[in-house]
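Feature request, filed as a ticket because there's no other form

It would be nice if the structure record came with a short human-readable summary line next to the tokens. Right now we just get the raw output. Example of a typical job, pasted below so the devs can see what we mean:
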Amino acid sequence: MSNKQNIIALIKGRPGIRTPEITDELSIENPIAYITGEIDRGEILVEKIASELGGRPVNAYRLNPDNPPDETLNPRQRVVKARAEAPAGDDGFSAALSSRGDLTISDGRKSVQLTPAMTGSLIAYLDRINVDQVMKAAGGAA
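Raw output as currently delivered:
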């Protein structure tokens, strides 16, 4: 398991665990750095409490029961619903960009699929050139 997963497991198993206890148990420095995202999203709650030795306050951690962290640590994905199917042009042309970054371009007869890397290269190229001027010079609309 990763340090982040170990920290989350400790917090889950021992609500109210303090920073020094996590540091001692896992032998890692600055455990808060591993769970900053979960804290920012409100998945792990942090409370300042007095140190047992009377020094500076320390952080105590517990999971938010209403918004627990994703323990599988899968990448967070957004699902965007299409309003309606994009109509193909009169000439049968269509283009579709997937959430993974794949780009499919079709003219009704032929179809070209670009990988995310190829899609990125195409977008970077189009960003570098002045598409409006090129299309105007070619006699087409941009």
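Something like this underneath would help us a lot:
The chain has a mean pLDDT of 82.
DSSP finds five helices and six strands in the chain.
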